[in-house]
Amino acid sequence: MSASDPDCIFCKIVVGDIPAEIVSTTDHTVAFRDLDPQAPTHVLVIPKRHEPDIGSLAAADAEATIALLGEAKRIAETEGNGSYRLVFNTGADAHQTVFHCHAHVLAGRALGWPPG
């Protein structure tokens, strides 16, 4: 992890200062269960590197971005029913509340449309 923010709750999860129900850890990512699940499977996949959103992560570290997407897919296939939704909220108007890039992996039931 080359970048971190000591005040970021997700950075604290990455280093183990805050407990979480960890689903997986890779060289580039940590995945854990959402505290307020919106589907039977609701896992957050975050990069170990602190970046505020997916666009910033993509610009700063393509390898970490690919790793995050790959891990999200692996978790969805392992825990879901073959169908899943991958959500990145970017910015306050999109209801991003933790400004550390994170993907919501939602699966395990039929998901309605439109989502918002």
Largest sheet: 5 strands, antiparallel
The helical percent reads: 25-40%
Fold-level CATH name: HIT family, subunit A
What's the architecture in CATH terms? 2-Layer Sandwich
Helix and strand composition category: alpha+beta
Tell how many strands the DSSP assignment holds.
5
Number of domains: 1
The coarse overall form would be globular
Q: Which class in CATH terms? A: Alpha Beta
Describe the structure.
- This protein has one domain (9-107): HIT-like (HIT family, subunit A, 2-Layer Sandwich), CATH 3.30.428.
- Helix content is 28%, strand content 22%.
- The chain is built from 3 helices and 5 strands.
- The chain has a 5-stranded antiparallel sheet, with helices on both faces.
- A hairpin with a 7-residue loop joins strand 2 (29-33) and strand 3 (41-47).
- Helix 2 (54-60) crosses helix 3 (62-79).
- The N and C termini lie far apart (33 Å).
- The relative contact order is 0.22.
- InterPro entries: Histidine_triad_HIT, HIT-like, HIT-like_sf.
- A motif (Histidine triad motif) lies at residues 100-104.
